[in-house]
Amino acid sequence: AKFVDLQGNNQTLGRWERKLLVVNFWATWCGPCKDEIPVLSKLQTKFSPVGLQIVGIAADSAANVANFNKKVGISYPLLIDETGAIEFSRRLGNRFGLLPHTVVFLPGGELIYNKLGPISEAELGSIIIQNSTKPL
Questions:
Q1: How confident is the model over 12-41, as a mean pLDDT?
Q2: At what angle do helices 31-47 and 121-131 cross, to 10 degrees?
């Protein structure tokens, strides 16, 4: 799947395939999504040295995402696919197409975790620690 970043450049998730990759599907109109973004930003900053990469995929417009990011200052890349994000999320196990939806891939692309609804810092933190590519 191809996505556009906030600078308007095409990106694919393959760019981060050597990292422990957390993909968070969200939108600016989704209250629980916005609530968990500070947790995700904190985890990205904390675990970046051990090979973590969080990527947010927004089912939203580029303008909405850019405005929200200006206000909040998110510490990980944001990709935008207003029409296709939910469908991609469904293919990764989100049967009902609800947000937020978070998945975790091992380096190389194996899907190891699938969470519908908000994720807690403790829950995601323990998955990161168990699967990080470098010792903490």
A1: 96
A2: 40
